[in-house]
Each structure stands twice: as C-alpha cells, then as structure tokens.
C-alpha cells in the first residue's frame, strides 16, 4: 500500500527565491520577489546554469489536458476537480484545464456546469483551474481511442449552451463530420481554441479546418489518421501546417523519434499529461469517465489493451524530455509558455514582473523541491 502522506499549504504575502531563474529573456542567476500573488522584482546577471550548482527556478507548468489525479476523475463532478488540482500542484502544475470525456448530453452538461462554478475561485493548495477542455462528444465514433461510445454531431445551439455554463477554453473536434466546419468557425469567433483529434479525417479535412479557425491538434499522433507518404492524414497536416499541438511525452504514447520529428516541424509543440485518476496512485483499477481502466507498468489501459490516458505528471514530463536530449529552457517553454500563449494568457507560463507568481523549483538532479501557485507555497511532507 502507498504510505500515508500529509500535505501542508503555506500562504505568505511576500516571498523571495534565489537561483538560476529562467526569465522571458533567458537564464539569470539572481533573485525573484513576489507579493500578493504577483512577481514584483526580478534581479540578476546572465548565466549559463551549467556553470554553477544553484537550483533551477522555472515558470509553473500549464497543463491543457487533465482528466484526473489522486484517485479523482473530473467526470465525477462535485469536489473531484479540487482533488485533481491539488494532486497536480504537487508535481508543478500551477494552472490547468479540467478535461471532460465523451458522455450523454445531460450528464456532460451537468459536469460542465459544475466546472464553471469551480473555475470562479481557486481552492487553497491546488492549481488554478482556468476552465474546461471539452474533449468530445464531437469526435469520430470510428476513432474513439479510450473515449466512451457516446460521440455526437455538433449542433450550434448545443455548443452555445456549453459555452454559457463554463469557460470552455478548448474543444476537440473531428473536422470530417458534416456540419463541423461551421461549428469550428463559430467557436473560433468566440475565442475558443478548437483543436483536431479523435478523427479519421484526411489531410485536406485538417487543412480546411485550420483555414476556418482550428488552431491545434489533440495529443498529436494518438487517435488520429496517421502519416503515409501518399496519404498524409491528420498527422501530416499537423506536421506541415500547425503552429501549436499537444503531445504526451510519457514515452509510451509517442516514440522519442516521433517526438523529435514533431519538434522540428511544429514551432510551439507543447506538453500535456492527459492524466487520469490513476496519476499519483498505486497500480490498480480506476475510472476514466464511464470506463474502467487499469494502471500497471507505468501506463493506464482499457481491458483490450488500448492506452487510456496516462499517469504522467508534468515534473516527470520535464525529466523525460531532458532525458532524450532537449535543453532545459526549451523543455520549460513546452511545459509552460507555449500552452499559455496558445490560451492567450500573457501573465502565466513565464517569469516576468507583473506576471502571476506561478513557479517551480528543481534541484540539480531534476527533483521538484517547491511549487508556488499565485504566490502560495505548496509543501508536501512524507
């Protein structure tokens, strides 16, 4: 059994940290001060962090695709999102999107309404829930992945109802379904980030959707038509045209070679966990929406062996990407800044005066030693 843990949350009006700080202009060795949740001062000299033994101070992680964690699943409603936000804050996530699963309309409406209410304020000790990523139901029933078999065709009035219930920041949609291009246009005009996924669409379907307002791709390579040199598919469209796309770097969902190909092709490829309720928990049986999933051997799967989300946390994602040769600054951008930019957030995902004091501290062995969410120190003791 997992050892019992006690988590303490400490909030202070003013705080100062010293170390190798990754700013918007590069690395400095110096100090950062914050008060009332915002960065108030930033001082130091340019440095190559490899030349000293000081800790790394990075922007807090922004995760746009979170289904669960700490034994809780977003689709449970109630306080589940609070449990999830607290679990991921322990691993450096300072802001996140609560991500839904495909479900019958009434059930999904109720969950979204509850998330809208929880997005108004941040629970102490947890990451900021910025809003909702609606992953389904507007997907192709032939490319469900681990989504339940409840896919639906998007209808404008229904989509607008969801938007009225909660801050829907991101919607995943299959562009090849009749009527979806018009819905993509509508959502994009309202500031929603539309991304393509769970799709059997062709290269041309994806390019057409990008022309009509789609901006990204959901968990690139997974649950979408693959690349073939005479039939480029959704993956080919992403590699050829996308500025932004999600990627799950748990080293199970995507081979390191494919990760490298995507890094060369997509300027602002950013990291998501696609985490489930099994994240932070021992091996065993868990829920992913209405699905039963099993955590074992570092992954989460349906009974037929299909990968069903992940157990990934953002601190482990950082270590994974560094392990395949990416520089720390580049990794940090893909864990924080690019996702914030994608969402249009200028005061998160970066360390700068006036930005939210969302910070993570790593030691030289890349162990996470501290997380600050809007200036609040989150401390875990065994």
UniProtKB/TrEMBL annotation:
Belongs to the metallo-dependent hydrolases superfamily. NagA family. The keyword Transcription does not apply. Gene3D superfamilies: Metal-dependent hydrolases, Urease, subunit C, domain 1. This is N-acetylglucosamine-6-phosphate deacetylase. Residues 56-369 form the Amidohydrolase-related domain. The keyword Hydrolase applies. SUPFAM superfamilies: Composite domain of metallo-dependent hydrolases (SSF51338), Metallo-dependent hydrolases (SSF51556). Its EC number is 3.5.1.25. One of its GO terms (molecular function) is N-acetylglucosamine-6-phosphate deacetylase activity. Keywords: Carbohydrate metabolism, Hydrolase, Metal-binding. It comes from Caballeronia udeis. It holds the Pfam family Amidohydro_1.
